[in-house]
Amino acid sequence: MVVTESAQVTGAVSAAQAVPMTKPAGTRNAVRAAGLVVAVLVLLAVLVLSVGLGARQLSVGEVWHGLFGDHSAASTVVREMRLPRTLLGLLVGAALGVAGGVMQALTRNPLADPGLLGINAGASAAVATATGLLGMAAFESYVWFALAGAAAVSVLVYVVGGGRGATPARLTLAGAALNAALFSYVSAMMLLDSGSLEKMRFWTVGSLASAPAATVVAMLPFVATGLVLALALARSLNALALGDDSARALGVRPAGVRVAAMVAVTLLCGAATAACGPIVFVGLMVPHLVRALTGPDLRWLLPYCAVLAPVLLLGADVLGRVLGRPGELQVGIVTAVLGGPFFLYFARRARIARMART
Amino acid sequence: MSVVRLPGDRSVRFHPRTLAVGTGCALLALAVGVLTIGDGDYPMSPAEVLRTIAGGGTAAQDFIVNELRLPRVVTALLVGAALALAGALFQSLVRNPLGSPDILGFTQGAATGALVVVVAGGGSLALAGGAVLGGTVTGLAIYALAWRNGVHGQRLVLIGIGTAAILTGVNGYLLTRAQLMEAARAVLWLTGSLDGRGWDDALPLLAAMAVLVPVVLLGCGRALHMIEMGDDLASGLGVRVERVRLTLLAAAVLLASLAAAAAGPVAFVALTAPQVARRLTEAPGPNLLASMCTGAGLLVAADWAAQRLFGGHQLPVGVITGVLGGGYLVWLLAVERRAGRI
């Protein structure tokens, strides 16, 4: 067993370093920085698209006038509906993408995702308790419940899966079981009170549609703190990937870094889930796609995730608006249906199957 | 392990403790069932209940027992047994105590089938049919996706979880498409409920189990014991591993889907019953019969608790099993982690 475990760890590390490191460091960083600029430009394009597309189409000029011009029909649509929604997508996407990247580094598990491992479900269960039993309706009051729920589950998942013996399949299975338990609790809450059913059945799918501007403002501090904390930890998490002993030799305290990383994940996932419901697969897909671009260095991987995850989430949201016309498909459904095949492809790949088999 | 020698060079091997636990759980399940039948707005003593079932009660008693309360208890017993058997098979095939149909996507598939019927406005018979169809199609899809020179347990787990996540998204979408009344009915079904179950819910499940249970227990039970020791060893001992695995998976998917059709996807019975049975019997191997008896007892007892424990408020049985199962799951995760199996 000991042999297979160390084989897994080396397998994970060597897989993470699959991108060859042949170019000199200066050129590589220049390429990465240029890539990040391109990614930001793509994000800006998707932001404009998200403000412009929907039940009422707006041209780029109308979007511009809606944002900065006088009062008109277009400016009402843009300022009251599309802009809060787009900003919410931006924050939630960045939060989930970075949380996924941190979790994959922390658990050394390529299949870690805040949705799959039950952290979003923990926040959901806490929000269901707050809205169903305690009658809370405002984001500012139940966000604390969401954070507590996310914290409880992330500690639990870490205790179960943080050990050296946890294979990807086993950790994922433990997360799926937790997910099932928490969602059966959420559906029990919905069943006891048809008023909360009416609200919750849209929320549990994961939707950006109903967010008022106040929610965006209220979640900003949580997400900003989480993002800053995660980016600040990138260097220490890099050291931790070499193993605890090497990390200590490099001046990093493993226990402290792990606790801080879990605080960051909790802040990001709890706030994102409280704002728009549980969304799966964003935190799984984006770090993997980004790793192909940047390599395993978290100092580059996490910023890329923060920029490209909103591209994916807002893209899914726009797709849901276009496909579901005249209504719309909730973004959680689009990410589940788009991300699921990605996960299946990934699970079928030989390397993961081999890792799972040991 | 005890052996009874029969005339003509035959022998039967059995595990005395397993036999005792199985019998005990079965008797307990029946006893709780009789108590549940006697309990209600028209209370009856256990003796009266038994006499009425045997055909010796008054007309009123006969109606209350045989038409109203007995079908519900029989459905509970059968659904519990079917889910537990399906769970025991899955846990043995994927070699993980957490591998149960509600986690690996099969139950979600049944729910998708049922929700499509609800959104289309179909009746309860069509709903049951939709559940069976959805579960079977999902089972086939997962098997096909997990196939690569044979189906390996861990790949089945990952594919199943991915499928479950996709289908959860689809189910949520279907739920948002339904009218509020239908959505409430769908959520009730999704939680798992035994309210108002009659003979036409119990009998199809009974017929299916009459075929499937002998196939599983007598036809594949020994082969499953061998497969638990590893594929190579099993095929060395003459077991056709892939064929047995396909048969057992098909049986388990059918059992889980039919149970879902009868009572909805009752959470966590399939997960907990085999584990409880394993701890009671302390026997190696899949413990199929003991799991069935435990599952039946578990669901009947949970249904009684859901009806009686909350004063005038009757809850669907799935809420009780969900909450019990969730607590049990956390404990199981802790124990399995300490033992290094997760």
Automatic annotation (TrEMBL), chain B:
Pfam family, one: FecCD
Membrane topology: Multi-pass membrane protein
Chief place of localization: membrane
UniProt keyword Membrane, yes or no: yes
Transmembrane segments: 20-38, 73-94, 114-144, 156-175, 202-225, 246-268, 315-334
Keyword check for Secreted: no
Subcellular location: Cell membrane
GO BP term, pick one: siderophore-iron import into cell
Keyword set, alphabetical order: Cell membrane, Membrane, Transmembrane, Transmembrane helix, Transport
CC annotations in GO: plasma membrane
Similarity comment text for this entry: Belongs to the binding-protein-dependent transport system permease family. FecCD subfamily.
Record protein name field: ABC transporter permease
